Amino acid sequence: MYSFKGKKGIAILVPMVALILMVVIVKPAYADQLSPGDFTDDATLINFNDAPDGPIEDTYFHDGVTFVDMYGGTKSDTGTGTSNPAACNFPSDGSGSFPPGELLFDPPVVRAGFFITTIDSDDTFVAAFFMGGIQLGSETIDTGGGFAGGSFAGVEFGSPFDRLLIDPADTALGAFCMDDLRFDEAAVTNVAPDCTKVVPSAGELSPPNHKMQSISLSGATDVDGDSISYTIDSIFQDEEVRGDPDGEGVGTDIARVRAERSSKGDGRVYVISYTASDDKGGKCSSSVSVGVPHDKSGAPAVNNGAIFDSTGD
């Protein structure tokens, strides 16, 4: 989920904050008012048909929104033409002090809207915030309906926001109900994995017993916290292949190489090329080396140019 902790947070937070500071400085503190047709086909839509009779809170957390001082259990015509289950800033028994309602979005959104009904004399004040407390702007929208009709209130503020405050600007009551909440999430660029710390499960194979040994890879990092998989792209060596292939596993996540070297050389070096992929399409590619020392003297194998395809192809 949406978080500003660690490297992932820095990767997302820095460009967002820069954009928001630009908007706060150069954009007037009012919203662009939207109609339902201004939202994308991929917008999240919540109609509250399954809202609880009571505080809504995190009922729709997995849809990307949490509610503060909002209740289900009341049916109202909010401007959709029929009386439907709605989200209101008061319980279904009509009690309470009618505080402003709040929507907390995770991840942030670029636009949000809903059908809303208030008492006929109300306008509705809507304010958007980022990181909970940085106010991006506000708008007062002409609403009404007397809980037997209403209007659509849709807003965007030129940059992502994660909190929306809704407050009917009435001197007597301040109650409201909403239905058909919709919002478009802000696009967050996927960061590709980093291959710089990838290591093989074994850097040396000894003794040179001519047996095939499995080599797995680990160490790739991903600032987004995405899961990472490895694919072996090729296996090359710096000594000629004589007889059976000395390497296999291309196209899989495990390389297998032979613990063998020429008795007349200075050891054998395998170069295993791979691609590390996250589950959102990000990739990085590199290679690791695995040596077969010539003897037990402690001298490492010397790479004299891994130009021979270990698979025999």
Layout of strands and helices, then pairs:
Blueprint lengths: L5 H21 L5 E3 L9 E3 L18 E4 L2 E6 L7 E5 L12 E17 L5 E8 L3 E9 L8 E18 L8 E9 L13 E2 L11 E4 L1 E2 L9 E10 L9 E2 L6 E4 L9 E11 L4 E10 L15 E2 L4
Antiparallel strand pairs: 1-9, 2-10, 3-6, 4-5, 5-10, 6-9, 6-10, 7-8, 7-9, 11-13, 12-16, 14-17, 14-19, 15-16, 17-18
Describe the structure.
The protein is mainly beta. It folds into two domains: 6-185, Jelly Rolls, CATH 2.60.120; 199-309, Immunoglobulins (Immunoglobulin-like, Sandwich), CATH 2.60.40. It has one helix at 6-26, and strands spanning 32-34, 44-46, 65-68, 71-76, 84-88, 101-117, 123-130, 134-142, 151-168, 177-185, 199-200, 212-215, 217-218, 228-237, 247-248, 255-258, 268-278, 283-292, 308-309. The model is unreliable at 1-29 (pLDDT under 50).
Provide tags for this entry.
313 residues, Jelly Rolls, Immunoglobulin-like, ten-stranded antiparallel β-sheet, 19 strands, disordered N terminus
Can you summarize the main beta sheet?
A: 10 strands, antiparallel
Instruction: Measure the end-to-end span.
Output: 45 Å
Q: Treating each run of at least 4 consecutive H or I residues as one helix, how many helices? A: 1
Any low-confidence stretches, pLDDT <50, length ≥5? Answer: 1-29
Number of strands: 19
Order of helices and strands: HEEEEEEEEEEEEEEEEEEE
CATH class of the largest domain equals: Mainly Beta
* CATH architecture type of the largest domain: Sandwich
Q: How much strand content do the residues show?
A: 35-45%
Question: So what's the overall shape?
Answer: rod-shaped
Question: Nearest-angstrom radius of gyration?
Answer: 30 Å
Q: How many domain regions?
A: 2
**Average pLDDT taken over every residue:** 87
The CATH topology of the largest domain corresponds to Jelly Rolls
The secondary-structure class comes to: mainly beta
Determine the fraction of residues in helical runs and give it as a percent range: under 10%
